[in-house]
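Exercise 7b. Backbone tokens:
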């Protein structure tokens, strides 16, 4: 695991006022109770759960409802978004910014299997990277992915993150796995903002 440094920790206290983010094809908004059915249907897939640390498998509608309630807790830091298609308003998955146990701000994302390979994850990740550096007083943003998760690694690299090491993570669904860790420096992000 990467040790946190003092300047890695964002300074906001309490829940961030999470905006609605709009990209070319997506709307990222707060998860709603009506998303639970769609969330459960997409998350109840071992191909998704095996790449995540906190997602159980099988994944039920009750799990989805609990998750949605958790995202609305008033003392939560960071932002969790439902990723939806702008045109059809379809629920595609989730993405967000949250702090890990060491206080580092982390980018995370997942999409349901029917929506893989269309560039949605990169589009959502770009929007969240911008939000992170524009909203939080951080000098670097962190993310990670399972070593075998090549599509997520490509998304991470397209956002400008640099590889920093490998560590072990515990997954509710599959136990321990090896994960690659990445960091994006504010100065690098500033030079890459042309992705807009």
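Sequence design result:
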């Amino acid at each position: 695991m990467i040790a946190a440094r003092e300047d890695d920790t964002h300074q906001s206290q309490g829940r961030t006022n999470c905006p609605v983010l709009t990209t070319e094809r997506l709307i990222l908004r707060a998860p709603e109770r009506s998303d639970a059915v769609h969330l459960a249907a997409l998350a109840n897939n071992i191909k998704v759960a095996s790449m995540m640390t906190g997602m159980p498998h099988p994944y039920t509608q009750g799990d989805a409802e609990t998750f949605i309630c958790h995202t609305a807790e008033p003392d939560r830091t960071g932002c969790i978004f439902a990723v939806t298609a702008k045109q059809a308003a379809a629920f595609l998955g989730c993405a967000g910014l949250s702090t890990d146990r060491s206080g580092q701000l982390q980018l995370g994302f997942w999409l349901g299997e029917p929506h893989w390979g269309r560039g949605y994850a990169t589009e959502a990740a770009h929007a969240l990277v911008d939000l992170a550096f524009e909203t939080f007083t951080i000098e670097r943003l962190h993310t990670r992915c399972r070593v075998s998760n090549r599509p997520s690694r490509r998304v991470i690299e397209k956002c400008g993150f640099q590889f920093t090491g490998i560590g072990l993570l515990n997954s509710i669904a599959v136990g321990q796995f090896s994960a690659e860790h990445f960091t994006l420096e504010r100065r690098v992000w500033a030079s890459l903002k042309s992705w807009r």
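Instructor comment: The CA atoms of residues 92 and 115 lie 7 Å apart. Confidence is low (pLDDT under 50) at residues 1-16.
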